C-alpha cells in the first residue's frame, strides 16, 4: 500500500456553535458559499455520509465526481475527488459558541493551503454572520 500520506493542516477559530458550523461544512447546498473552488454540487444526498457520491463543479469549469470516504458525524469528514484523496474537514467545540475548524490536504498539494485558508476565512464570516 505504500507509505502513509502526510497532510498539511490549517485551522481557524469561529465564534459560532459547533453544530452550526458542522451544518455549513457537511450540507452540500452550503459548499459554494464558503468553498473558493466550488461553484455547485450535485448529489442524491443532502449531506456527507460514508459512500455518498456526486459531482462538484469547480471554478476551473469541469464537473468532477466525488465520493465521501470517512465521516464522524458532527465532527469530521474526508472525500476523494476524481478518485484522488482530497481535503479533510474537522470541527471541535471550544465552548458553547466557539468552534475550531481544521482543514487538511495531502502535503503533495501544499500550495492548496492558500485555497484552504481562504475557505476557512469565508466559512468564519458566514458562520459568525448566521449565528448572530
Number of helices: 3
Q: Would you count the extended β strands for me?
A: 7
Structural class: alpha+beta
Helix content: 10-25%
| Straight-line distance between termini | 47 Å
Strand percentage lies at: 35-45%
SSE order, one letter for each helix or strand: EHHEEEEEEH
* Order of adjacent strands in the largest pleated sheet: 1-7-6-5-4-3-2
Q: Which shape, going by the Cα principal axes? A: globular
In short:
The chain is of the alpha+beta class.
Topology (elements, then pairings):
Layout: E1 7-14, H1 18-26, H2 31-34, E2 38-43, E3 53-58, E4 63-72, E5 76-81, E6 84-93, E7 99-106, H3 113-130
Antiparallel strand pairs: 1-7, 2-3, 3-4, 4-5, 5-6, 6-7
Description:
The chain is α+β, with helices and mostly antiparallel strands and 132 residues long. Helix content is 23%, strand content 41%. The chain is built from 3 helices and 7 strands, in the order βααββββββα. The chain has a 7-stranded antiparallel β-sheet. The protein is globular.
Amino acid at each position: 500500500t505504500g507509505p502513509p500520506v502526510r497532510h498539511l493542516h490549517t485551522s481557524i477559530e469561529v465564534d459560532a456553535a459547533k453544530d452550526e458550523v458542522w451544518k455549513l461544512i457537511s450540507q452540500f447546498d452550503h459548499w459554494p458559499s464558503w468553498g473558493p473552488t466550488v461553484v455547485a454540487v450535485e448529489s442524491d444526498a443532502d449531506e456527507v455520509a460514508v459512500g455518498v457520491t456526486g459531482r462538484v463543479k469547480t471554478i476551473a469549469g469541469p464537473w468532477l465526481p466525488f465520493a465521501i470516504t470517512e465521516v464522524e458525524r458532527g465532527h469530521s469528514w474526508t472525500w476523494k475527488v476524481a478518485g484522488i484523496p482530497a481535503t479533510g474537514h474537522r470541527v471541535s467545540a471550544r465552548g458553547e459558541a466557539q468552534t475550531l475548524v481544521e482543514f487538511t490536504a495531502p502535503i503533495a498539494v501544499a500550495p492548496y493551503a492558500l485555497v484552504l485558508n481562504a475557505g476557512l476565512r469565508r466559512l468564519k464570516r458566514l458562520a459568525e454572520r448566521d449565528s448572530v
